[in-house]
Amino acid sequence: MKRHPLPNTSQGLRDIRPLKVVAVHPLDQDGEELLAQLRRIGCRVCRFWPAPAILPENTDIVFMAIRPETMSKPLPWLEGPGALPVIPVVSYENPIFIEIVIQLNAYCAVPSPVRSFGVLTAIAVSLHQHKSRVALERYAQRVTEKFADQRKIQRAKSILMETRNLTEPEAHELLRSRAMGQRQPLETVADTILKAHESLHF
């Protein structure tokens, strides 16, 4: 069985301590315990209730009490490619609350009542999984852009083949020589050819 190297735990803790954490939670017993645990870890904490429309600048992670009033209004910072990791604080295990946790794309949750253990683990797991997801999304974006560039180059070659009666290798060589002469990427030259062709046939 292959063994994976253990992560540098002390480095992981050093990464967590300077985090800026937003706690969307009432100032009840659970809220006070959550704030105490976050401050004990060393995080900088801001508390809001109800949930704010805009998060403070440079927020790293959000703890949010799952209550009907929490999800009653749209929160822009929960959506989009730049959405931060959210750790739900869950009081009940019923279908509605479970569905909310799933919709939040949460990697883990903290049960209520909040205890002196579990908060640090939730942060570490959420940050690790969030970084992995962001890296995967960036990779997928690069692959998508690469395929788009390849399609653009292929279309430009087809135009050159049709308008200049060239073979595909000749069209590719013409594109390549233009790119080298203009000191531009191949896809940039291809894009210029496509736009010129479209303007002539508008």
Automatic annotation (TrEMBL):
GO molecular-function terms, A-Z: RNA binding
Residue intervals of the ANTAR domain: 133-194
Pfam families: AmiR_N (PF21332), ANTAR (PF03861)
Top-level taxon of the source organism: Bacteria
SMART domains associated with the record: ANTAR (SM01012)
Official protein name in the record: Aliphatic amidase regulator
Organism: Pararobbsia alpina
Lineage per the UniProt record: Bacteria, Pseudomonadati, Pseudomonadota, Betaproteobacteria, Burkholderiales
Gene: amiR_5
